[in-house]
Amino acid sequence: MELFSMDFSTLFTIENLIAIVIGTLYGLLIGALPGLGATIGIALILPFTYAMSPLGAILLLVAVYQGAEYGGSISSIVLGVPGTPAATATVIDGSVMAKKGYPGKALGYSLTGSYIGGLVGALVLMTLTIPLSTVAIKFGDPEFFLLGILGLVCVAGLSSSDIPKSIISVLLGLLLGMVGLDGFTGSQRFTFGSLSLLDGVSMIALLVGMFAVSEVLFTLGDLNKRYVTESKNLKTKLTWKEIKMVAKEMIRGSIIGSFVGVLPGLGAGPASWFAYTEAKRASKNPETFGKGEPNGIAAPEAANNGAVGGALVPLLTLGIPGSPATAVILGAFLIQGIQPGPKVFETHPDLVYGIFWGFLVATIAMYYLGKYTTSLWARMLTMPNYALTPIILIIALIGVYASNMNIFDVWVAIVAGVVAYFMKKLDFSLPAFILAFILGPIIETSLRRSLSLSDGSFSIFFTRGYSIVILILILFLLGAMIFQKRNPKGKSKDTEIPNL
Amino acid sequence: MSYKKGTNVMLLLITLVSAIFLYQSFSLKTLTTNQPIGPDFFPKVISILLIITCIISFITTLKKTEDRKVELEKFKFVIYTVVAAIVFVMCWQFLGLFYVCSFIFLFALLYLYNNNGSKFKKILTSLGISLVVILFVYAVFGKLLNVLF
Amino acid sequence: MGKKCSILVITFLLLATVLVACSSSTKTNENSNQSGGEKNTSDYPNRPITFVVPFSAGGSGDIMTREVAKLAEKEFGQTIIVENKEGGSGAIALNYALSKPADGYTILNHSSTLPLTMASGEIPFEAKDIQPVATMVSNYQVLAVPKDSPFITFQDFVEYAKNNPGKLNVVSSQTYGTTHIFSLKIMEEADINFNYIAYDGGSEALTRILGGNGDAITSSGEVVQQQVESGDLRLLGVSSAERLPTHPDVPTFKELGITSIDDELIWRAYFVRPGTPEEIVEKITEVLRKVSETPEFKEYAKNTNQDIYFKTGEELTEVFNNYYEDGKELFESIKK
């Protein structure tokens, strides 16, 4: 097997190892800063790779990517501020568990989940690259439309007890997702003459506003509280028993993440939500979700790190970036004079297999470096609320600005925060809103393209193999939900997510 | 705040927003070459659905007999914080002195929230924390990430 | 306690002084910016220059600008700051660059898409709002089909389209982009009609064509280059004026009778605000010319599958205006 026949001495050079360590540490930091994520982190460090060897350069960026996807969960858990869509699902249970006084445990679940996710992603990348990319490429617009619908059905499974209100949340998210230039006709939709709205409402501004700013306003009720009083609760160590408890969902999340990550355009955000809803659906005690359930942290975290390996699949085999972060990595390849794509396995086999193995090494590095650095972040929770709250607020606003260098986004975050404060108080569902906002454009554009392809006929959704598979999945989920509703025993399962 | 009243106000606001979106989507093109549905189709469908669900939710809220009080803890602080944030971002946007503005903003909030100890001690701790945080911001965002504020 | 307090007070005082000093120095800087623009054009540049990129960091425009900035720093003898102002189809960056004084210290990067988005009315700016300085690189465009497609030549494609109007699905990137104009010109001159299906970028369109979700693709040469080499895609025609040295068997569109497609290229260029003093524009042009001739820049262009394309002055203004006028005319015709 070619995978093992590579010359490992080219991988374990000082330069490559330093690249992996620096990349991971930097990724952890960038990920942990609210508003900044893998994409921005990779873009910012890109110029430093120009002078490096191709393998070292790519490994540095891949390590940043892996580290940042895990790092995102640090601010989600410790501060309740999701920096990226991929880390939003982690907020639900992660920040609750941290605020119960166990930030170390919460970070431990997220780190272990990320590690397993990263490993599964790496294995998928190493063994299934070619077959996966041939499947992924068959996914056309009809499939993306149905996957979007599948996502919305998942949200319905998440939502609160007040059904009209969760439907309103979904519709509102879809509506807001339509602001901006319409990609097909160039019409400006609902931009109200603002240039900053031409590309739509900034997702990061909305995320930080809805989760961080509103959370800050919530904590004002309890300013003298200190979340963590015992420093032993800062340790990220998990016992075997604890790991075994979340093992199943971690594996499941990793697999979901790796496969969704392969599909260009979907990526880590939806993947982590799919994993979260699946973990909740499969759980024997779904009512514990939203109250600090370990599976609610481990599953989405496994998924978003699994998606990293997945996103590298179409990049390496087809030269097609599966996510914004891999688009920047593609740039790094080009600068090195290498075009990833169908021929790269023949022209640069040592590089490709070096990336495969190096990616595995980077994942292991992320686990160990993460283990020793993250409890530093958790330490923030030993501060009393009156000091912690203003710090969270200002870092969140600065993060929003830094993500796009546009002060308009900071205003969006403040408005979103105030609106979300009242929405939360009145039991509207913020996760449903956010996921609909993310999926809305995917659903709309792929529907319009599908109908364009089929000359307006809806049969395009029923006549394609993969479409039918996804349709059956949607019907299955809908059926399961209706069955749960009808079943009196399942009624207690319909608990709402507190404070979300 | 009454839960029912709050819900109704919120529903009214959402209905208003969707009405604006609906109104605006009538000025969008309906058909373009080679495209069975235009840019107006989705906004129209969604805003109409939104208005309908708002009405349904309005009715179900009315039907509910029991009402409860929604706790708005320390609402005064919420208002202070939002106003302070607005003033901060305005200063930042129009005066441009980012580090000075954020230092003052942070200091003001820290001082306002803290009700432990003497006035002097409060000022000192607030100053100290603000200093550390702003230096952190300067080092990480300003220097390491080259963000121009 | 007392000691701690005094330390805190001293640090604070120190910091306050530093902050005040910093803020006042930036203020004086700003003042000099405004006045410095009009006079003293001879000592340009005497302070750092900003390159504004309308795309996110890591995009192709950004990568080129960072390469140019690195090389131009030596020529200018000044630091160059690259600022990313993405969003609004380039309107945010454009608006930002136009809000700065016309003194040559703010240089905007954009591509051939700029005149087209202006022409389509997507962004509220017109051709007269910006002054092109120089283009740096270009890329030809292609019409390609999958390897198992029944179309061997462009004539096969046209014939099928004539017999089945509106049946062919051609995937591409962006509405009102360079490839859209290119596709519209093919339709107009060959007198055919196909479905132009726009994706968010060339690579997304490429995925669809490789997955069998489309009949043909129009894109820049760099997007499909790998697949053409590996044989997964077949070129039917290229937009350059001459046949490509790498694919001498593929005809140009001019040869195929589509005369309006003559050197229809995608290019990347630099712009300044109109009203910038003549000498300064000349200085920038000279620096960019030198950059385009360096071996490092040639290496960059080769690695990214682009060609050096240095056009300035009236020649460039004409190219820019042609794109703008073509866009106006063609987009008007499909908007009806």
Automatic annotation (TrEMBL), chain A:
UniProt keywords, alphabetically: Membrane, Transmembrane, Transmembrane helix
Membrane-traversing stretches: 12-33, 40-65, 115-137, 144-161, 167-185, 197-218, 255-276, 315-339, 351-369, 381-401, 430-447, 459-483
InterPro entries: DUF112_TM
Extent of the signal sequence: none
Keyword Transmembrane helix: yes
Domain of life of the source: Bacteria
Pfam families xref list: TctA
Membrane found in the keyword field: yes
Domain called DUF112: residue spans: 17-435
Protein name: C4-dicarboxylate ABC transporter permease
Lineage summary: Bacteria, Bacillati, Bacillota, Bacilli, Bacillales
Automatic annotation (TrEMBL), chain B:
Keywords: Membrane, Transmembrane, Transmembrane helix
Annotated signal peptide: none
KW Transmembrane helix (keyword) present: yes
Membrane-traversing stretches: 43-62, 96-114, 123-141
Keyword Cell membrane found: no
Coiled-coil boundaries: none
DUF1468 domain boundaries: 11-148
InterPro entries the UniProt entry points to: DUF1468 (IPR009936)
Pfam families: TctB
Record-given protein name: Tripartite tricarboxylate transporter TctB family protein
TrEMBL record, chain C:
Region of interest (Disordered), ranges: 26-45
Record-given protein name: Tripartite tricarboxylate transporter substrate binding protein
Family, per entry: Belongs to the UPF0065 (bug) family.
Signal peptide: 1-21
Annotated Polar residues bias: 26-44
Superkingdom of origin organism: Bacteria
Organism per entry: Bacillus yapensis
UniProt entry keywords in alphabetical sequence: Signal
